[in-house]
Amino acid sequence: MRDLHPGGGGAKDGPIEDGPIEDGPIEDGPIEDGPASEGSPKEDLSSGQPVPSPGELIGPDDLLSFGCRGGLACSSSCCRDVSIYLTPYDLLRLRQGLGLSSRVFLDRYALVSHAKLVPLVLLGMNEEDERRCPFVTPAGCSVYDDRPWACRMFPLDLGEQGGYRVSADRERCPGLGQGEPTRVRAHLGSQGVAPYLAEERLWGAVTGDPRLGSLEVDNPAILQMVFMATYNLDAFREFLFESSFLSRFSLPAGRVERLQKDELELLHFGYEWLEFGLFGKKSLRLSHDQAPTTGAKGDPDETA
Predict the structure, then answer these.
(1) How far apart are CA 111 and CA 97, in angstroms?
(2) Is a pLDDT exceeding 50 seen at residue 31?
(3) d(CA 53, CA 171)
C-alpha cells in the first residue's frame, strides 16, 4: 500500500469526494427516475446516432449511442492518466475477482491517504507507462467483470442536480456514436451499475453523515480502525474473531457465521460498527448495559 499525499492529483474521471452518490435510474435496480433532461441528445450527422455534447445534462430516458470494443482508435485511452477513486465495494469486487487478500491488493494496487477520518483510496496507475491502469492489457480490461463504478459509468458522470453528463468528447472517446442508440437507463443497467449504487448508499450513510465533519480525531489508531473496517477486511475479520469484540454485542448466531464466510456481510457490519461507534447510532445492540462512546479521541476499543 502506497501513501497518497494529501492534495495530490484531482480526479479526471470518476468521483473522489467523500459522501453519498446521488441515485441514478437503472433498469435492473429499484432506483427512482432522475430529472427530465435539459434537451434531447444532438444528432451526429456522420453516423446518424444520438451523441450528447460534453457536459450536456441528459436524463434516464434520453438516448445514448455508445460502444466500447477492441479495434477503436482510442486504444483504451480512457484507462490512462486518470485518478479513479475506489469505494470499499469497488475494492472488494476487484480483489475478489483477482483472488487477492485485502492486504495484498492494497500493497500492490492502492494509493491511500489517511489525512481525514474517511480514507481516500485511489487505484495506483503505472507511472512508467503513461499512468496506464495496471489492469489494461493489449486484449482490453483484464478485470472487466469487476471493474470499478467510475469505469462502468464512463463516458457518463452524475450531474450536480441529478441526471447525467457526458464526461468526454468523441476525440477522447471514439466509442461515442458507436452501435445502436439505447436509453441511458438501459445502458447503465447493461453496465451493472445498480449493485454499485446500492452499496454506495450504505457507504454514504457513513461518509455523508453531517456529524462526521465535527468529529475531532487526534488518535491515529482511530483512523486505522476506520480504514480496517472498510478497506482492510482481512484485518477486520481477525480483529472480530481473535479478540473479545463480538462478545460485547448481541448478534444472532447465523450472522456471526456469515461474518466469518461472507466478505460483503463483513463490510456491511463494518459500516454498522462505524455508525455505532462514531455517531452513537443504534445500528448494533450491546450485550451488556454499556453506553456507546461517540468521542473519537480515545482508544479504538472505546468505540466498541
Answers:
(1) 19
(2) no
(3) 12
